[in-house]
Fold these 4 entries.
Entry 1:
Amino acid sequence: MIAISLILLCLFSIVQALIDNTSDIFNNDIMDLVYVKKDNLIEQTAFSTVSTPENGSHPEALALQASNREADYGGHEQNYYHHDHKYVYDKKKDKGLSHIFQIAVTALAFLAFGGYLLCLIVQAVKSKTQMNAAQMAATQTQTIIRRRRRRKPIRLRPLRRPKRDTYFDDEDLWENANYEDLYYALTTFSEGYAQDRLQSKYVFTVTFYLIHSISKELRDLNPDWLTLAETVIGFCIQDKRLDIAKTYFEYLKTEKIQLNNAFISKLLRLYYVCYNEAAISKEIEIEIINLCSLFEKKFDLLDAFSSENAILGLSLTSNWKQCLEHLNNIKLTGIAPNALVYSTIIAAAFINNDLDVAWELLREMIDNDREPTSRMYYGLLKFCENNVSKSVEILDNLFQILSNSDIKPPKEYIDKLIGLKKQFKLSGKLTKITKMGKCYSCGNSLSSMTLSQDEFNLLRTSFYTNVMVGKNVYTKTTPKELENFQKFFTTVEPFNIVIDGLNVAYSAGIKHTPETYCRLIAGVIKYFTDQQNRVLVLGRAHMSKWKNIHMSQILKTSTLYLVQNLSQDDPFLLYAAMHNGPKTGFVSRDLMRGHSYRLKDPNLKMLFRRWQNNVQHQLIYLDNQGNARVKHPLPYVPIAQKQETYWHIPFEINIENKSKNISSKVNSIQWACFKMPS
């Protein structure tokens, strides 16, 4: 079709060229009229009337209204007129044929162009059809692949209670099954269980059938398949399904499958999860002891995680003292035992009436900056229930340790202790403490426990040595920067308040503008300067890039000191507050526990916490007018205190702070008052 169209277009071009040539000849004939006399062409007496041919379609010139003038163009007479008349007549005839021919060729050209367009349209439709067919084929292929991936679930036989010791006697179960399909089904069920799509009993049944159907040859080729068994034990720990795990373990032993230490240690952890707050039977105790014996025979040296799980399991048995060996093993690995390990052994010591080990490990735990978990309090209450005569002495010792270490017990322990007050011959209830430190229940006032000058000097010196410098001063600052900071205080007068600039600024979040940060800092500065206090604002070097229009209010009303961006600003803040005297306060919402831990000595830690409680201020919120509300230090120390025969025990509850400017969770301290028998 395209070739025919091109041929017709070429033909049209040739014919058009011939027509143009004929037109040139006609124009040459017209040029000859220039040399014809005017008298021979126009009759002198006929300007007013002009004769026209009968055929009126030929164009003619209108007569000019002018006088008749003669001109001699020479040579030609009337013959030329007749010749010209004849020529015009022939020209009209030839011109009609040419016009018809032009119309015909033009029509053919348009037809050719239309055919060309039609050809393009047909090809476009054809290509689109082919594309749709290809897409349909690809979709069908993808559907087939998806269908292959979405395998039909393997239908199991109806569940019935199996006969004893014959659960896996059917050796022909899925004899011709495809092991790839079985592995796919097993992983699918495991993922479904992990996403709470299936109940554990279905996973249990499917797992057993699938693993049983996997041949021993496949196990030998892929030893890592045991990670599936560890996953199943992990699911059992989540649901506390010891029955499933025990059956699974017996099956693996029957199949003579070599188990790794991770599987056995997780099984021991499962025993602890199921019986940590319940009495165990003699049968369960024997199972745990046998499992630990198997554990120790198979592996001479255990890692920290396996030793931890062994401690959890052995703490439930009469062989709980073996936990001490595993505790030493954890220490040898270089990993500090966590609070759960310590609390578990301490609870086992209390339950088995070994008070010396319990108190020793409790003090060691606190020295390592570990707080007791609910397991420790459970063991202590069990001892008090079994030894009521010693309960008051045990509780008094515990409260004293809590007071010295500033530890707040969990609320559930306080609730249980209040519920057992009659059994322990003591009275206890929840109470409230006023802002001035007076108890609503007994009427006694809590003490402030201020530091003496000697204690403060000891704390300041120890803080500089152990925290500011420490083992490596470069982890917090540089010697040059620390030296410049000490020289700075020799050039200024003492300050009454030291503000952690970035801590106050970021109280509103880290996605605000420097203008908002400066407004927060300026609001806190104004709060203290209105009380005639000299204020030092401590920040980092990048604060110097904030616009002067925002920083101007801070620079006018306070002294600004910036440390390097890589330096820790909290040690500088605490050192600045200590350097200016025991009554200099600081503003920060940080609890400073990490810096307290670096003091190492328990007595120094206690002094630091008491000093902190006496001088630390915290920003609560800032209103739209720029007025700050600040939480002042309490006139008493919120730690366990004893007044006469009354113990006041604090405990914390997390409450969300929904302020517009500050979003955080605040630990709200509540109190319980216990009267000890005299």
Entry 2:
Amino acid sequence: MMKNKAMRCVWLVCGLLMLAVTSCKDDLLYTDGEPIPEGETTIIAQVDFRPLVEGLAGKSRTAGDAIKSIQDLCVLLYDTEGNFVEGHSLESISNANPTDGQFYVNEVTRKDGDAPDGGTIAETKTPQANLKLTIPYGRYYIYAVANMGEDFKKAVQAHGKENGAAEEVAKYKTAIATKEGLKSISLTWDVADVAKNSQMFGHFTIVGQENNSELITINKKGMKLHSWIRRAASKVTIAYDGSKLEEGVFIYLKSVTIKDIPQNCCLGQDNPAVPENYQPKDRDEGVKLDLIKNGETIKYYEGDTEPTISDFKETYEARITKGKPLFGSKEQGENAYHPKKLADVHTEITNALYFYENMQGKGKEGTPSDKRQVVANTLNKTEPTYPNGGQENNEAWKDAKPYGTYIEVDAFYVSINDKKVGRGPIKYRFMLGKDVITDYNAERNHHYKLTLKFKGYANDADWHIEYEEPEPGIEVPNPYYISYLYNRTMNLPVKINTGGGTLTSLKAEILTNNWAPYGTLPLAKGGLDYATYYTYSII
């Protein structure tokens, strides 16, 4: 009996010891089957610029690489509920060995696979930031934010501390309290210095798990993270091709301007933000947002004075003809020129026009939101479907997308072609998007390579056109070459601009002819009354 009692006491003591041992062991948090220890770890991370993706960027032209550098970099952590945990404003260093809270930048060669959604890259090299950072173990949404400026950096450093910060800093502190607030921060376009519109945003993933969600688990020492960051802005380069012009047609380019660019842009979500429960419909006008009427301009003439009709001659540099059809910009500081091929004016360093993302959805073929001059299913293929679409109150103005961004080319055309004479100022307009028919999504981080292909008599281009001819007036080919052979007739093409009036009669006279065959008799001796008698020999 005593022996059994002693045995029970031994088992009881052993049980207590086992309990004590178990109780002394650290608790581990398990989330989705993965243990998360207490404490913190130092992560190694890379932040890569997404290379610009090919799409179809005083106010003046801007270099093609104007928004291609990291000025400052912040990393922000949010918990599983999307609430701010901590933020880090990192220190930039010049060597390749960053310590905790530091980063350095180097250039990396890119390939097509680096472009999102299988797109084609438009930049061969972009920067890469390498950093080290000590953070607590846990599950987080971790975001990289670049080029937001001093006020944002101060807000990240001061979050959770006493208020009393400057107004702009306090605004950022409020916004970054949640991840949705961070993403919806409203950026404002800097008209005076385009290079300052280089804000970038991206989220971190674990290396090797890049296709997983934004929520990641930090539960091991020395974990490696990676983030692709995208610029909020995009750029557009413009080239011109007159190879399909008729002979005797000349286009004199004056300038190209980007119009109706968004004044504001969301840092980390589509811009403009689509209203809740928004359902696109046929002939949808798009999402309303504030616009800057005139963005940057690239001029194709020297000096500050716009050229006049007397300047438009054979020596004018930006002159496009069938025989010399290609034209476009070079890099900053150099004039535009006639390249050997169009690709030469769609490079990374070509002067470009920049703008914030403007997602205006899609139109519908065969309606005013069809970008083409002659829309689908139109019976008359020779005239514009909406001839008054250049008027702001017309249903087809801006292709029925009043909040979209567009390109406007200002030019002057002259046609001495005997089939269609004419001259006058002309404007060509194109709504930006990912195709030339119905897409109006001018997405961020894209390089839109736009080529205006002139056709026919200069006013038959693929873009929407608005042109004027002097009124009233008479247009004839000048010069007009005729045959001096005997017994020949000729037809002189004449175009009369009535200025809105009605032409009731037309009288044409040959006032004089300063040429006649040698030996022609004077009028008194039975010669021709309009012929001139020359007494000298032609050598």
Entry 3:
Amino acid sequence: MRFAKEDFTLRAMLLCTINDFPAYGNLSGYSVKGKKACPICDDATVAPRLTYSRKNVYTGHRRFLSRYHPYRRMKKAFNGENESGMAPIPLEGDEVYEQVKDISVVFGKPNKFEKNAKYKKKSIFWNLPYWKHMSVRHCIDIMHVEKNVAESLIGTRLTFRERLKMATSKVIDPDTLDKLQADIVETLCQFEMYFPPSFFDISVHLVVHLVREAKLLGPVHLRDMYAFERYMGVLKGYTTNRYRPDASIVEGYIAAESRHEGRLEGKGTIGAKWVSLKSQELNDAHFLVLQHLTEAHPYIEEHMRILKLKYPKKNYKWLVEEHNRSFVKWFRVKVLDELSCTPNEVGETVKWLAYGPNTEVKSYEGYDINGYCFYTKRQDNKSTMQNSGVTLVASSTEFSSGTPTCNQMSYYGIIEDIWELQYTTFMIPLFKCKWAENKKGVRVDEYGFTLVDFSTQGYKNEPLIMASQAKQVFYISDPANDKWCVVLQGKRRILGVDNVVDEEEYDEFDDIPPFSEGLPSMPVEDNLETNYVRVDHNEGIWEDRDQAGN
């Protein structure tokens, strides 16, 4: 039953452990050194000892060949003998348990073991009720096998490394595993023909067991140590004080995490300073904020209704211009009147919006928001990177034969200033941009590239946009004509930042699309959502002459 709200016992199962080979021995209790160092071959491990090197080597791979393979009869190429032995059969879990069940180890005190004992302790994992029923309890770590074997063979036997990659690929065809095992064994035998015995340490031998584990446990990428080792490399990179590496790693990790803080909701990064805006600039910025905050939408609709009732003979274009001119003052009076009544339903956000922003704004030369890193044009000129290009898509209202129609269009600009408006308890970041005029300065060539000409500056009366709704683009000079720039879409990296796991879900906006007044439409993607209002300019309004005279 779904949502039964009942208590239940959650159970977890340990499938296997993944470690380098020394840790393999620590967890399993098996001695991974000496004559019986292979825990899979166990007693059948072939490990002759080199007298002068004083080390055991792990050969005898001809046992894993098919019964009538010609290599079995080649004496001179190997150890001077025919090979009649067969590949050892790995012990099942219950058989291993019988070997370790009576081992008693008291930690912290000396313990006596038989000479050449295979197991030094009984692993705590045997306390799991299902552990002795598992065919593979500890996995061979392919990462360390590749590091110790494959990389040392570059330039000598590249095909061997290719076969290792086949065994460790994300997609495995079960029908090819037997052939892959035969190829690996044959290659190991060829190594025995040409390489000195000292080459065959335990890592080389473990390769012969990789296919077996792939058959039992599936693709290796689900149980290797690459991800953990890479991340350990990241953590070790934070070490600046070798005398206190643990504390150094903690400090470095916290510093790295703090760099992501604010990358989505907005955070100034470069050139912070306080500046005073002119009265008209501050009023335009405040009006832009009101147009785009959901809390102010009921007041916008009410103000438009009042204007329509008060001026019934005026056309829609005139009503919008009057709304743009008078709404800020009307909004302040309206909210303050509501606040004078007790009780009232005015929210905190609406209250501080009515009081308006501080006359001083915080200015930046760099700003991180929505997964992008933005710079002003001034900062771009000091940098080798370009981060000042922005674009946004807005709904535009066109007037044709007296009927307003809405279309989507794209705007392209360059950031000139970055401001944070301060509203006592919260702040709103804005970008002041230089915009290309869409009718004359934006076109799509025959190859489908969008070209922009910033010499045709447009929309000077509305340079501001909400920083949260800007997307980053890059402008590259057109080789055929320096006057034009080719627009390239920017990329952002937000997965994993502030718990974002789905970028498409993060991009979802409100269901109510805002609108724009008076710009010619341009083709944009059908699935592109708009979330922007552009209503405070008179440039480029299309309407019939008859309507214009009304």
Entry 4:
Amino acid sequence: MTATPAARLRRRPPAEPVPSRTGGSRLPSAPRERRPLLAAQAGPGGGQEEPGDGARGAEGAGRAGAADPRARGLLPPLVLGLEDCPGEQAQKVMTWDYTCAGHLGVAGSAGSGRSTLLRGIAAEVARTTSPEEVHVYGIDAGTGALLPCTRLPHVGAVVTRDQPERLRRLLDLLGREVTRRQQLLALDGLASVAEQRLAAGPQERLPYLLLLIDRWDSYVASFESVDGGALVERVELLLREGGAVGLHVVMAGDQTVCRGRMGMMLEDRLALRLPAAENYDMVGMRPRDVPVSMPSGRAFRAGARPREVQVGLLDASPAGTAQVAAVHALARQAGRQWSQVPRSRCPRHVDELPVAISLTQALALGPPPGRGSFCLAVGGDDLGLLPLRMEEVGNGVLVTGPRRSGRSTALYVGALTALDAGAQVVAVAPGRSPLRCLQGRPGVLGVLGEDAVAADLLGLIRHAPSEVLLVVDDFEFLGPDHKLAPVLEKHLKTCRDAPGGVLVSCGVDEIQGLYRGLVGQVRKNRTGLLLAPRSADDGSYLSARLPRSVGAPVPMGRGILVTAHR
């Protein structure tokens, strides 16, 4: 399948050398016209090929009858712009081979082209590879310049700095994937993903992972004091452990991005326009060798000898709106080209939780709960229903939170999804509750109030006690001494390893006093829904360790689902 590239990098025609402080020559700073950097012909997988650019894919395709390197798991490097070669009196294509290079650091001041370079990398990935070959994720701690990239099928998620909960999920996802790949490579006796892709079949090859971070300095300022700097340390762990398993990081920020422990792990570096000439020591330049002025996109790349480069644009117009439009055009093209790629082979999402969602919308997300399952909420990296099976969680689930946090609504949703899955339900609602609306529905054996006695409940569940789901709202109004309490506790034990069980809610302020009885027994299962947690200490009610930063105001219905096996 071929495609015409929609995103084009441009280069300038030859011009008179511009003298620098050292008397050498460098890329012209005032071009008279622009023309396409790459040839218009698309290579395998939609990528453009330029003879002599040093790419393995272009080198193999240039020989008649040669096998396609992509068939062996090799991928072409990414074109970033132009590179000045004074010794050869030429300008060459500047590339970054993420398949064998280390992490890339990009330092520059505001407006120097940092975000443009990151967008260009995401666009080049979409232009030269398929979504099952490279998965891209982004952390945007700046002004949202990476958000347009979310439309590319290769991009799983772009998380901003005002989404700490989503950021944790993204880092969890990448951390688990790094661990999984380390174990997989160790079992196969392989040292890197490059070796694995050469040895494995097309459907078994691991994709490369790219993590783009914009405004690293702002990221550190925002999260270095949150949870003891855990979110900063987890990025450092990805830098240290990710290279061998195919995870490469492109980190952009100010002059501090290449300093300290983080900077030591950035093997490849680009220095765009910086505030002082002394800052260019990160790429091995002396202050007297730095030009007096540098246009946007002009940089020096670290190496045996620093090389002057020019970052390419996606459109002839440098305006931000034109660059974003080019990304959107490429996204539409890539979406059509790779529409047949299975969803399981595409990047995993880290979807944002909705502020509010109706039951109809929640059920439409799927997956539908199977027999013996029910759902309390939607969530997960790929937003959808979160099913629970009583047989797997110990036949008791607790829903807790402060007043007006959505406890009764969660129970109502749990009861409806259990009924849809074929369960039999008995509701206990001592006060005003949406559970009373279940009366008369198919599968509902009865709805009891505060004045019910043990015989009433026993009469409803006598035919198949281990198959019935008891849904109890506001248990703090009943208490452990209520006439129904012994029957509820006995039902919890009767349903062990059976589809039935007890789904109970209790106020978070009253739960401490209910150390015995039904709530005390259900808490031992360490499974439940914590709605609107006010501090990390609320996790102790389900023996869960929550981040210390938990406690900020959240929308009604927002919570944390805790399970013992997750």
